[in-house]
Amino acid sequence: VELYWNLQAQTWRQEFTEVATGHSRAAEAFFAAIPALEIATRGTEGTPEMERRLGALFRWNNDSASALTIHERLLKDAPPTNPALRSQLLSEIAWDRIQWLSWNRRYDHPWLEQAREEAKEAVNLAESPLDKLIAAQASLITEALSIPRDQQKFQASVELSRSMHDQILGVTGLWPHLIGNDLVKALVSEKTPTTIHESARSSEVMDTAVHHTIQDHNMFRTWNFDRDVVGSVPFEFTPGPTDKHPFDAWQIAVDATAPSPPQVVTQTSPCLKSGCFRVLLANTHIFEQADIVVHFRQVASAGQGEAGLVMAARDIQNFYAVAVNPGTGQLSLYRIQNGVPSLLGTGQGKLKKGPWHVLRVQVVNSAHVDHPRLEIYLDGYEAQLPPLEALPGGGQIGLITTGDMVTQFDRLQAIEMFTSRPLSTPAAY
Hints:
It is a single chain. The protein is an alpha+beta fold and 429 residues long. Helices cover 33% and strands 26% of the residues. It has helices at 2-12, 16-20, 25-42, 48-60, 64-77, 83-104, 111-125, 129-145, 151-166, 174-179, 182-185, and strands at 194-195, 209-210, 220-223, 237-241, 250-254, 263-267, 277-282, 290-300, 306-315, 318-324, 330-337, 340-348, 356-364, 373-378, 381-383, 396-402, 406-416. It is elongated, with a radius of gyration of 24 Å. The model is unreliable at 190-217 and 420-429 (pLDDT under 50).
């Protein structure tokens, strides 16, 4: 039961108050149990196990800070001579961090590595197969959230989780739920068999290979441009202006100073006409709600140009964009419809010193997808822009420049924010 709610809490990204009403009696009961356990643990009748469960309830209710406070204190007090208890608490702490990372979409946060190490230690210390499975599943989630993801490590985590599962006798239907979790199943290719080595499986389990018919829907994409041909348009990208004039010059160049050397993509053709944008669309994926990050460097400009990110693009002539002036830090939010731009609002960002900057655009509040809002970060600092009008469904992402800006881009990353979308019937929840 606890493993189920560990998975569902980070998948839903909602509080008990959101999912309990009319949806889940269990969530409603858990929400009511929180004040009862708070009272019990303050009194003389409270036990460490009650506190551990209270921490889990806090986590499932998206209060990771309170959960961590409880579980880290319990771990500090746990005797080294009780490895089973320490394993259980380390696993709880790993899940606490995973919940916070999933809720805040902070896959670049140091907590991800901490959660990975805590889950690994929990697996090593655990004594029962169930405790090992709970910790192994936390380890699997950390590999799924890693950017860039190491497919071999992810596969190894799947195999470890399955081997722990197979040591629990008398359990049916659990593995399809674990591997069918919306986060995990989106990352396992339909064509890739998950092979479980004979030595890692229970002797009562006959099959040695498990083929998962899971939709190939990779949430993470990274473009470093290092395998593209210098002087050419990047592979899997379509360039174009918005003024229907001849295509502009997007091409691969060499730059040893790039965040991920040796290559970058450069836009070298100024766009001097008013209302003209230079656009480069990634044509390999449609993102419903994207979290996009890119590194960029101004090569030349008279001060009026901008560089930024495209989202929700239907084509070269229809999209939304967030662009920044690297000289002033001013951010602009645009809607381009049939090639005609509209400025929806502006905001001020804070630039760090140095030639390379990082722009991140994130669509948040996915529990209310009809009223999304943008979170925009420039060099790690959040900038405030006006609320975003409802985006018309998903679309392509890409890069954009305006004005006389000549810009280099590197390490474009995108994450699908809408992870709670059911990819199979019935949904796990």
